[in-house]
Amino acid sequence: MTDVAVLLGGRYRLGSRLGSGGMADVHRAMDTRLQRVVAAKVFRSSSDELGRRRFAEEARILAGLSHPGLVTVHDFSADEDELFLIMQLVEGGTLADAVDQGPMDPEHVADIGGKLADTLAHVHDNEIVHRDVKPTNVLIGNDARAFLADFGVSRLADAAGRLTGSGQVVGTTTYMAPEQVSAGEVGFAADVYSLGLVLLECVTARVEYPGGPNAAAARLVRPPQVPQAIPSRLRRGLQAMLTTDPSRRITAEQAGDLLNGRTTEVLRPIQPLPPPVVPRPRAPQRPPTGSLPVAQPSPKRPVVPIAASLAVLVALASLLVALWPEGEVEELPPVQGPPGVERLPVDIANLERAVQQ
């Protein structure tokens, strides 16, 4: 058997295995055409058809992205007989390896977090949700550069498919966002939350929510415990990234700004303003309790003005004096009551009676 016969895709000679995943193995390989060392992710033939589609989708997604925080895709094959992905080889380890050594320096964690957040922002700008951000999917090169890897369960943001074909939630339970645990809508905010848990673990060297059904539900009732004695940019960034409500969580771009020190403001998503209040017409004011009621005008009645009444009285008196026979003195009825307006009607009636006699 010649060397050509064992070459992957007739070009890549496989070397030592660097790691394994759920459906593929990663090998160090030599590109015999360009004479350079690469990483070859080779799909296992024993995996099911759904796994094959996910692997092919990962290859297409990564091939369409270009960012310093993503491994470069050199080549891939989606043939039924050969399914592989040829990528840039990152010499070093994973973020999980670094956390195994104990708590990391918070300033260093903030630097790594800022770069990973910028990478996620680029991924989200291309309408892709990673859905499986975790320490083993972050590669740390010997030059301390961080790379976000393994897009095997990623999806386009508008694609329906938070579940696999078997009905299981996609992702790693330990780093899932609350909306993933509760089988809710999984969007960009879920990646931000997962990255927050990863960075929190780097600082504490402790898994905030260990695997298992009870731990998965714990994040729905208990928020992550962010240490206070860490740099302000990291503390504020983690608090804003780990908000339970995804609508109140900051974006990957905002997380990058905070962690990288480009801003000190936590700019949460803008909430819609309430509708303006239209003032109602004011009702007529009522008098306070205990005050006197306002007098209402009484129905109009014909009232003889006082001056006119007096004039009539004087005229009648003059007429009486002029017509009264001499020598006869008619005795008027006795005066009733004190003089004034109240006695006026009685006086007029007496005068009229005297004239008629």
From TrEMBL:
Q: What range(s) does the Protein kinase domain occupy?
A: 12-267
Show the ranges annotated as biased composition (Pro residues).
271-287
Question: Cross-referenced Pfam families, in alphabetical order?
Answer: Pkinase
State the source organism's domain of life: Bacteria
Enzyme Commission number(s): 2.7.11.1
* Alphabetical UniProt keywords: ATP-binding, Kinase, Nucleotide-binding, Transferase
Q: What class of enzyme is it?
A: transferase
**GO MF annotation terms:** protein serine/threonine kinase activity
In terms of InterPro entries, this protein maps to: Kinase-like_dom_sf, Prot_kinase_dom, Protein_kinase_ATP_BS, Ser/Thr_kinase_AS
Q: Give me the residues that bind ATP, please.
A: K41
Q: Does the keyword Cell membrane apply?
A: no
Q: Where is this region: Disordered?
A: 270-300
PANTHER family attached to this UniProt entry: MITOGEN-ACTIVATED PROTEIN KINASE KINASE KINASE 20-RELATED, SERINE_THREONINE-PROTEIN KINASE YBDM-RELATED
Q: What protein name is recorded for this chain?
A: Serine/threonine-protein kinase
Ranked from the top, the taxonomy reads: Bacteria, Bacillati, Actinomycetota, Actinomycetes, Pseudonocardiales
